[in-house]
Specification:
24% of the residues lie in helices and 25% in strands. It has 6 helices and 11 strands. Strand 3 and strand 4 form a beta hairpin. The protein has helices at residues 4-17, 122-125, 138-145, 152-157, 167-177, 190-209, and strands at 22-28, 34-36, 44-52, 55-60, 64-69, 74-79, 89-95, 100-105, 111-116, 247-251, 254-258. The longest helix is centred in the C-terminal third of the chain and has 20 residues, at 190-209. A 9-stranded mixed sheet has the order 2-9-5-4-3-1-7-8-6, covered by helices on one side. A two-stranded antiparallel sheet has the order 10-11. It folds into 2 domains: 4-125, N-terminal domain of MutM-like DNA repair proteins (Alpha-Beta Barrel), CATH 3.20.190.10; 138-258, Helicase, Ruva Protein, domain 3 (Orthogonal Bundle), CATH 1.10.8.50. The protein binds a DNA duplex (16 and 16 nucleotides) through loops.
DNA sequence: ATTGCTTCCTGAGCGC
DNA sequence: TGCGCTCAGGAAGCAA
C-alpha cells in the first residue's frame, strides 16, 4: 500500500516524465474515480508536482490542480503507447503528445479530484506535520501525545498527528525504537518520543532511497517494484532477528507486527 | 474530545 | 475444479 516513501517515489518518477506535458483530456473508466469540482474544458500543461502526506498534487498552467490519492492499490503508470491498457485502469490522463498516465486501482478506493489551483483541499487541512520536515520534532510530538490514551501504534497511523505513515512503516519505526506498539501514547517518556522522531526520519529516508516497499500492488510510474521490502524487520515477518517469534495482533482493526522481546 | 468500528472494494489464499 | 470464507487496509463517517 502506498505510504509516504511510495508516494514520493511516484512523484519523483512523474517529475522526470510528465512535467511540461499538455493535458488533452482525462477519461474516467470507472465512475467514482474522477471528481470535477468545476466544469473544465482545458487544463493546460503540468507545471509542478508536489506531495502532502500521501496526497499527490499536480498543478497545471491554466490554474487548476489534480489531487490524487492512491489509497491501497492505486498506481500511476506512464505509458508511451496510447493503445496499451492496464488490467484495472480506472482513469487515464491523455497528453497531447500521444502519451498517457494510467490510473490503475484494483480495489477502487483511489480518487482523482480536479479543482481550481487556489481552492482549499479539505482533506489536507486536517493533516499533521510532514515527518521529514523540521516541524516534526520532539516538542511537536510531545504535545500531540499529551492526552492520547490510544496505543502508540494507532496514534502514529493518525494522519492528523503525522502525515504519511501507514501500517508498514509504523511497524518498522516502533521496532527500531524498541517500543511496544500497545503502549498508550501519553505514557511514552521524552527519550522514547525523541527516538520516534529520529527513526521515523531514518526509516522513511531509507525507504525513499530504495524506491519504497512493494508487498503486492505498489509500483512506480515506470511500473517497477520498490526494494525496501527486503529491509523490513517486522512487518509480515514470522521471526525476529533475536530469534523470538514475531507477534501479530489487531489494533483498531489493523494488523500489528512486533517482537515482544525487543519491544518492551 | 477521543476512540474505534464500519464501510467502500477486489483478489489472493485457504480448507474442504 | 470450484465454492465459500477470511483477510488485506486509508480514510470518511458515525456512534459511544
Amino acid at each position: 500500500m502506498p505510504e509516504l516513501p511510495e508516494v514520493q517515489t511516484v512523484i519523483n518518477g512523474l517529475n522526470s516524465l510528465v512535467i511540461g506535458k499538455e493535458i488533452q483530456k482525462i477519461i474516467e473508466l470507472r465512475s467514482g474515480t474522477l471528481e470535477w469540482q468545476i466544469p473544465i474544458t482545458s487544463l493546460g500543461k503540468i507545471e509542478s508536482i508536489s506531495r502532502r502526506g500521501k496526497y499527490i498534487i499536480l498543478q497545471t498552467s491554466l490554474h487548476y490542480k489534480l489531487v490524487i490519492h492512491l489509497r491501497m492499490t492505486g498506481k500511476l503508470i506512464f505509458e508511451r503507447d496510447l493503445d496499451k491498457t492496464s488490467s484495472h485502469s480506472r482513469a487515464e490522463i491523455i497528453f497531447a503528445d500521444k502519451t498517457k498516465l494510467i490510473f490503475d486501482d484494483v480495489r477502487t478506493f483511489g480518487k482523482i479530484e480536479v479543482m481550481k489551483k487556489n481552492d482549499d483541499i479539505p482533506a489536507l487541512k486536517k493533516l499533521g506535520a510532514e515527518p521529514l520536515s523540521d516541524k516534526f520534532n520532539a516538542e511537536y510530538l510531545i504535545n500531540k501525545l499529551r492526552n492520547k490514551k490510544a496505543p502508540i501504534k494507532t496514534v502514529l497511523l493518525d494522519q492528523s498527528v503525522i502525515a504519511g505513515l501507514g501500517n508498514i512503516y509504523v511497524a518498522e519505526i516502533l521496532y527500531r525504537c524498541k517500543i511496544d506498539p500497545r503502549k498508550a501514547g501519553k505514557t511514552l517518556r521524552t527519550a522514547q518520543i525523541k527516538e520516534i522522531i529520529k527513526y521515523t526520519k531514518v526509516v522513511l529516508q531509507e525507504a525513499i532511497k530504495h524506491n519504497g516497499t512493494t508487498i503486492s500492488d505498489y509500483r512506480s510510474v515506470e511500473d517497477k517494484s520498490g526494494e525496501f521490502q527486503n529491509f523490513l524487520n517486522v512487518y509480515g515477518k514470522k521471526t525476529c532477528e533475536c530469534g523470538a517469534e514475531i507477534h501479530k495482533i489487531k489494533q483498531a482493526g489493523r494488523s500489528t507486527y512486533f517482537c515482544n522481546i525487543c519491544q518492551s
